[in-house]
């Protein structure tokens, strides 16, 4: 009489462990990039909160961005990398950039970010 076996073989366990470790390693490599992006989003939201309705100029917006980047210790972008365009209600401030993290050998993980806020006059 045959008994039914339940569970996983050692080879099956190793295959599953290898897949989980590859995905986990990718998540570890991307974590600093997303933490930096969260700081940049915070800078944009703080600029919007501070300057909304203050009739700000491009120079004032760029100066405020530079100060916030220094406070947050953001290294991925400089204040010149933010695109400030005049819109019908005020100014549109956009942070659009790519970040990459080395994965295995010559394989890199590329992440593209695009975030904008509208500062009203």
Give a quick rundown of the structure.
With 121 residues, the protein is α+β, with helices and mostly antiparallel strands. It has one domain.
Q: What structural class is derived from the secondary structure elements?
A: alpha+beta
Q: Encode the helix/strand succession as letters.
A: HHEEE
What is the C-alpha radius of gyration, as a whole number of Å? 23 Å
Biggest β-sheet: strands ordered side by side in the sheet: 1-2-3
- Coarse shape: elongated
Count every helix, treating DSSP H or I runs of 4 or more residues as helices: 2
Amount of beta strand: 25-35%
Number of strands: 3
Overall average pLDDT:
93
How is the biggest beta sheet arranged? 3 strands, antiparallel
Q: Segments where pLDDT lies below 50 for 5+ residues?
A: none
The helical percent reads 40-55%
Number of domains: 1
Question: N- to C-terminal separation?
Answer: 83 Å
């Amino acid at each position: 009489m045959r008994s039914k076996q339940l569970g996983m073989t050692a080879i099956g366990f190793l295959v599953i462990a290898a897949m989980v470790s590859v995905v986990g390693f990718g998540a570890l490599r991307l974590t600093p990039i997303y933490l930096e992006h969260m700081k940049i989003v915070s800078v944009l939201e703080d600029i919007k909160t501070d300057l909304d309705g203050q009739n700000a100029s491009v120079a004032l917006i760029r100066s405020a961005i530079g100060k916030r980047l220094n406070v947050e210790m953001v290294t991925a972008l400089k204040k010149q990398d933010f695109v400030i365009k005049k819109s019908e209600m005020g100014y549109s401030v956009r942070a659009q950039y790519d970040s990459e993290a080395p994965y295995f050998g010559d394989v890199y993980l590329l992440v593209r970010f695009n975030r904008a806020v509208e500062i009203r006059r």
